[in-house]
Amino acid sequence: MTSLPIILASSPLRNLTKPSSTSQTLKPNPNSPKQPPIHLLTKTHLSVTISQLIITSPVLASESFDSISSDPSPGRIDLESILVTIDNFFNKYPFFVAGCTFIYLVVYPSVIFYLRKYKPISAMNAFRKLKMEADSQLLDIRDDKTLATLASPNLKFLGKSSVQVPFSENDEDGFLMKVKGRFSDPENTVVCVLDNFDGNSSKVAELLIKNGFKEAYYIRGGARGKNGWLAIQEELLPPPVHMYTAKNVKSSNNNEASIVGTEN
User: How far is CA 111 from CA 100, 103, 107, 210, 215, in A?
Assistant: First the structure.
């Protein structure tokens, strides 16, 4: 019974239960820097170690970047996936795409062109329209100097006369007032516009349609252009409706009088 206390006293467990003399004598130095708690050091060291492991490992790094790129942030448009979807649709339905493209580029502009009320017309067809349609009139928009050198077509043979109103882009309102003053019923009037070339005739035709005229045509080639009135008159138009220079106006009037005399 007397040996048991001796064994316990000499046991290492006994020593652990007693505080050592050195631990009792150590005191914290107030001047030494404060160290963070041990649990914070452990977490920080663990996070740094994991990040270093991911960076140094190619497999883990590639997987992490793939996961970031595959999960786009909300509100961000994935342009690449949209382009891939469109490309797949084009490859899957090529005939449908080609048909829609043809309709948009060819059919639709053609329909719009033929439905609009101002259109181009050849000099020959303009003469036919003036001859066959009672409500059609010829509007010559050339300036006075040009008219002095090349007169308007003489339409007395058709029971009509050319209306001469010079056009100026700087005074469209004044031009419209003069034109409407020359035509008593614009809503029922078809106008064939004649310019020196193709310059302003299309603009005037569109302007007339927007301001209440029934129809408006601009003569391709005008008076002096290719396939214009002056170019085709010798072969395709009767002499009474020919255009003459100032020197030949008098002779054309004589020819017209002789034709009228023979008809009587």
Answer: 15, 10, 6, 19, 17
Residue with tokens 């002779």: 251
Q: Which CATH number fits the domain that encloses residue 157? A: 3.40.250.10
Q: Is residue 256 part of a domain?
A: no
Q: Other C-beta atoms within 10 Å of 213: how many? A: 24
Examine the domain organization and report whether 180 and 132 are in the same domain.
yes
CA dist list (Å): 10 to 13, 17, 48: 9, 12, 45
For residue 46, tell me if it sits in a domain: no
Amino acid making up residue 200: N
Are the C-beta atoms of residues 192 and 137 closer than 8 Å to each other? yes
Identify whether the C-beta of residue 167 lies closer than 8 Å to the C-beta of residue 216.
no
Whole-angstrom distance, CA of residue 99 vs CA of residue 44: 65
Per residue in 106-157, pLDDT (tens digit) is 876 766 655 566 789 999 999 999 999 999 999 999 999 999 999 999 999 8
